[in-house]
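[step 3/7] inverse_fold.run input=structure_tokens len=385
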């Protein structure tokens, strides 16, 4: 009996916190046309200890990482995830024995999809042995590498879950997740889904570089970006990056879209734009590339529910709305996914709870049309509790 309650957890490319979600998986829901029904019962985000966050960010940058740092981060994050889940379940009054399994995505420290640089690999850390040991709960981890072994990108994995969660009632809906990187899940019969490029990652890095002592590590509501002016030359240059015109399947990470990438474009400009103008341009870059990807994939799009932290960036949300409705007709509905009844901070973590269920039930977890893998595969390795 594999139905029941599952915990999912993940730290995304923003490395801002550990997202936890508790879901209930129950049998077939034919009316929604999906194999199982999902309810998100509870969710929480826990901030990462600052030292661990700094180490994880360093681990994610090719020029700052080494094997010792990688090993330490792996253990420390696994420990942090295990204790966080134990504390959280205790606070909810839920006995560990009632959880079927944990799905832990871990932290991506490198994502090198096929045909990019050298040998393809993707690496998520946060040692699942520690999670299983601390919680006593069966833990599933390492979700991406089997797909990559089968020739796929190993990413994104969320589109299949978005389909299960939103159901196929939403025919002209394109679900968007704006984390460090943005990805889209068009919910139509053509399916698909891919990373569109940067979400918040460049906005966060540029903001922190210019506001080192700020209490937040992001431009709250996009207020700073809103104070600047888009630099057309910079925007045009950045949009010419080959990633944006590449056909899917495709996926990317902050080892590509990072400060070095931005600097290379800034240095090529004849002028030196004010910092706030660069932030305004980065916001426009996320919005323009995202909107172009949506329209290209789903020309008849009506509804765009936005998940992930980027939905809290009001300026970015306005830019996305404007990029999808160039003549300001309010045709396309761009709103936080709360408008559809879902907690936008819980969905990615819930996706890995669902993938843990799929692993335990020996069901496929990837979508070859999304990742480009040779076929459907059961994803993840199981660490008994
Ligand atoms: N109120 C807000 N205003 C602007 N940006 C926000 C706000 N809340 C969250 N964010 C952005 O969302 C990011 C976190 O999003 P998240 O979905 O957790 O990404 P990831 O999956 O990469 O961890 C933050 O780093 C920040 O850029
Ligand atoms: Mg996050």
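[step 3/7] decode complete -> sequence:
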């Amino acid at each position: 009996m594999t139905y029941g309650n599952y915990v999912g957890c993940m730290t995304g490319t923003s490395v801002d916190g550990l997202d936890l979600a508790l879901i209930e998986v129950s049998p077939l829901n034919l009316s929604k046309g999906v194999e199982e029904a999902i309810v998100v019962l509870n969710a929480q985000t826990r901030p990462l200890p600052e030292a661990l966050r700094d180490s994880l960010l360093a681990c994610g940058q090719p020029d700052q990482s080494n094997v010792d740092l990688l090993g330490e981060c792996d253990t420390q994050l696994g420990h942090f995830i295990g204790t966080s889940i134990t504390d959280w379940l205790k606070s909810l009054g839920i006995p560990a024995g009632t959880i079927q399994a944990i799905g832990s995505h871990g932290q991506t420290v490198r994502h090198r999809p096929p045909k990019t640089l050298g040998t393809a690999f993707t690496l998520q850390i946060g040692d699942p042995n520690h999670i299983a040991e601390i919680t006593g709960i069966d833990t599933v981890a390492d979700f991406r590498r089997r797909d990559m072994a089968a020739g796929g990108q190993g990413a994104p994995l969320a589109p299949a879950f978005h389909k299960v969660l939103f159901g196929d009632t939403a025919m002209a809906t394109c679900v968007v997740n704006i984390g460090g990187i943005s990805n889209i899940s068009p919910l139509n019969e053509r399916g698909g889904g891919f990373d569109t490029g940067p979400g918040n990652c460049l906005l966060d890095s540029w903001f922190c570089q210019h506001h080192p002592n700020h209490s937040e590590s992001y431009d709250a509501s996009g207020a700073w970006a809103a104070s600047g002016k888009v630099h057309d030359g910079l925007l045009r240059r950045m949009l010419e990056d080959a990633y944006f015109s590449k056909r899917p399947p495709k996926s990317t990470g902050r080892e590509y879209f990072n400060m070095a990438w931005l600097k290379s474009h800034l240095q090529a400009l004849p002028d030196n734009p004010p910092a706030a103008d660069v932030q305004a341009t980065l916001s426009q870059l996320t919005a323009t590339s995202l909107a172009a990807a949506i329209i290209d994939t789903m020309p008849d799009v009506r509804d765009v529910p936005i998940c992930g932290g980027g939905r809290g960036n009001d300026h970015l949300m306005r830019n996305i709305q404007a990029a999808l409705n160039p003549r300001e007709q309010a045709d396309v509905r761009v709103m936080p996914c709360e408008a559809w009844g879902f907690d936008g901070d819980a969905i990615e973590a819930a996706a890995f709870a669902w993938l843990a269920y799929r692993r335990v039930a020996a069901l496929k977890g990837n979508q070859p049309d999304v990742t480009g893998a040779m076929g459907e595969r059961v994803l993840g390795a199981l660490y008994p509790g």
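[step 4/7] annotate
The chain has 14 helices and twelve strands.
The domain at 159-340 is CATH 3.30.420.40 (Nucleotidyltransferase; domain 5).
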